[in-house]
């Protein structure tokens, strides 16, 4: 499974789609695991998005 996650990370970085993948990871894995994996991959680092 780790290989898959790493491959996803590579694709995400290439395409700049980390936000979408982040949402998918959260839905599939749950918040805690998704956060850990995303931080391991260095994607989706929490950046304040102002949508007020």
TrEMBL record:
This is Uncharacterized protein. It comes from Candida albicans (Yeast).
